[in-house]
Amino acid sequence: MLNTLLKRVLWGIPVLWLVLTLTFFLLRAAPGGPFDQERVLAPDVAQLVAEKYQLDQPLFHQYTQYLQAIVQGDLGPSFQYADHSVNDLIALGLPVSLQIGFWALCVALILGVTLGMVAALHANRWPDLVAMLVAVIGISTPNFVIAPLLILWLAVHWQWLPVGGWAGGEWTHLILPVLTLSLPFIAAIARLVRGSLLEVLALPHVRTARAKGLSSAAVMRRHVLRPAMLPVVSYLGPAAVGLMTGSVVIEQIFGIPGLGRYFVQGALNRDYTLVLGVVLVIGLMMLLFNLLVDLLYRWLDPRIQESS
Amino acid sequence: MKLRLGLCLVVGVTLVVLLGPLWADLLPDTIHWDDMAVPPDATYWLGTDVMGRDLYVRTLQGGQVSLSVGLLATLVSMLIGVGYGMVAGYVGGRVDAVMMRLVDVFYALPFLFLVILLMVFFGQHLWLLFVAIGCYLWLDMARIVRGQTLSLKHQSFVEAAHALGQSHGHILRRHILPNLRGVVVVYATLTIPQVIMIESFLSFLGLGVQEPLTSWGSLVNEGAENMSVAPWALLFPAFFLSVTLVGFNLLGDGLRDRWDPAMTNKAK
């Protein structure tokens, strides 16, 4: 058990390195630099700036320097936000993104599982059909379509909720972003739960449980839910990736100062260190999250340990 | 029922997008200076945007771009995925283990972030869009094709081909590939809506299709910016985009229920 855990963690290091290296050289191969502005800098000023950020060094030297700094936990200075290190910026943006992502995941799980259960328990009758129709539409409507519509309706027309902004994380500012971010995942989870519940309900051990006179609530709780949740748990990994990418759009639309916005702004401004920092943090979080999902899966389905 | 509804939606949208412009005598990038942000009427069937361009023609033209990106990028992902999966499954053993481990690693990466970077830096080319999205979406296809190949490999007709002394290339082409057709078609159909979604996602961020061309994603983006002045400029492209995605998803689901061998013994 501990062994497999350690193996997973060790696998993570080359993966992160690969991503960082790829991003680093992609950034440098891109046309344009961080200090290219409409007004061209005087050559001696440009020289000084390049020296300050070590941009005049050979590329490979910069790369090794950067890796060394990272190992020591230093993500370097931001090129665009003067006087801010990338560490500062991430310390500001990460909690915001995490908060939205966490709530979106919770909402998606609660609503998705409920919807899927209702559908499975009424299979092929109208609650099922309605739920699955909603799910197909939910999966097929991108959140950048839903978000403006919800803003138009709830924030502009009825003025129930703020149009955007963060306001230090006040809960009214959370509702719309969290809702729009979670919608596609509610739909996907509902479909998964419906499918796997139907499958588990048809298994022999469930029939036995019913035959020995357990109430349907008890059958559900003790014999059905745990195995039926397995596909949902393995979906959590891809879902987290989706939440991350979704948050790029959501943060853009609602004007939320999170990691996704830093990433897009950083890429547009050629803010090398900021982009690399965000990529590193996101990669790290993905690995951690996948590890957690793995552990959860093993706990739910002990058969896995025997086979590996 | 899913299959039929999906097919109807897909064929319907495709026909409208391809043939619709024939009935319009307006051009997509003509600016009508006196008719900015006009709601739908007899001249402008879907209204005009804030720059005075006819939305009917623009929405359909955007649809042509979105659909062709969808098809071409799916083709790219299909080529990579089928090739990769077939080799992994057929060769098996250590090669297979390493290749699939690599796929696992790719799954865990926030790949779309790299695609975003690619588009920011080297964007403005449609072909780059196809390749970038195709390279991102081949993983599912590779996994499924590998699984199928693995089970086909041990069937007696493949063993017979071996016994006849046929080369590996020949067996892959003549015996394995034809039997993968069903699965590949199913998952290609399910890839198309994903591609369209990603293309419009990138275009929404301003990184995908560039002016003067347009796509549903860029139209939704423009519409969202000016939604308080001209909500129809948001609603119509959004409607077309969603209907297309629903159509392809239903079609793919329906095909999977019918063809995928893994699905036939499950409760549908």
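Residues 5 and 291 of chain A are 8 Å apart (CA to CA).
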